[in-house]
Amino acid sequence: KQEVTQIPAALSVPEGENLVLNCSFTDSAIYNLQWFRQDPGKGLTSLLLIQSSQREQTSGRLNASLDKSSGRSTLYIAASQPGDSATYLCAVSEMDSSYKLIFGSGTRLLVRP
Amino acid sequence: SQTIHQWPATLVQPVGSPLSLECTVEGTSNPNLYWYRQAAGRGLQLLFYSVGIGQISSEVPQNLSASRPQDRQFILSSKKLLLSDSGFYLCAWRVWDREFNEQFFGPGTRLTVL
């Protein structure tokens, strides 16, 4: 059974710092991996999607890497801003007909001005 | 462009009352549709998914049911709500017409059962 773990559970950093969020999964047979952002009381915003054949994806100040063989992904946020404060969720897509997502419990990020 | 709608945004219901949450997707056809629940202090859990009209798969045994009466409409229901049904319910759809098969989420419905 696939399990997704995110470390740390919470993170507080001063504005401008570069930071790394970690995600690990137990079964490397995944279709893809997505990183999401969730603001309090809101839905999920897709940030980056990495196919299982890819190593990384970049969007603006965000860079996500994937090492499928070791079951790890990292989300790198450069030059963090207070507006980056949110919960970041990692999810892997199962390789079956449902393509359902298995989520980690998230990292709650606070960027202090 | 594609958009996904959920309503209501918030709902407070007494224990034992019925439930109907609706999700509709615009701008695409024949999407995979999903219902997830996010309970307080817990991660997101898949409840149901559908690959087509009338085709529903349940992931966990529970007090809820789902239906897909139209291609882009997904409904979550219950005949009698339990306290444990409280949570944040999110509908999602999976892109078919792109290379990367990304999932997108609606704004969610906050359900409180008292």
Question: What does this protein look like?
Answer:
With 113 residues, chain A is mainly beta. Chain A has strands at 4-7, 10-14, 19-25, 30-38, 44-51, 56-59, 62-67, 72-77, 86-94, 101-103, 107-112. In chain A, strands 2, 4, 5, 9, 10 and 11 form a 6-stranded mixed sheet that branches. Chain A has a 5-stranded antiparallel sheet with strand order 1-3-8-7-6, with no helix packed on it. Chain A is built from no helices and 11 strands. Chain B is an all-beta fold. Chain B has strands at 3-7, 10-13, 19-26, 32-38, 44-52, 55-58, 65-70, 73-78, 87-94, 103-105, 109-113. The radius of gyration of chain B is 14 Å and the shape is globular. The chains are: A mainly beta (113), B mainly beta (114). The A-B interface holds A 31-32, 34, 36, 41-46, 49, 51, 89, 91, 93, 97-106 and B 32, 34, 36, 42-46, 49, 51, 57, 59, 88, 90, 92, 94, 100-108, 110.
In short:
The complex is a heterodimer of chains A (113) and B (114). Chain A contains no helices and eleven strands. With 113 residues, chain A is mainly β.
Topology summary:
The complex is a heterodimer of chains A (113) and B (114).
Chain A: E1 4-7, E2 10-14, E3 19-25, E4 30-38, E5 44-51, E6 56-59, E7 62-67, E8 72-77, E9 86-94, E10 101-103, E11 107-112
Parallel strand pairs in A: 2-11
Antiparallel strand pairs in A: 1-3, 3-8, 4-5, 4-9, 6-7, 7-8, 9-10, 9-11
Chain B: E1 3-7, E2 10-13, E3 19-26, E4 32-38, E5 44-52, E6 55-58, E7 65-70, E8 73-78, E9 87-94, E10 103-105, E11 109-113
Parallel strand pairs in B: 2-11
Antiparallel strand pairs in B: 1-3, 3-8, 4-5, 4-9, 5-6, 7-8, 9-10, 9-11
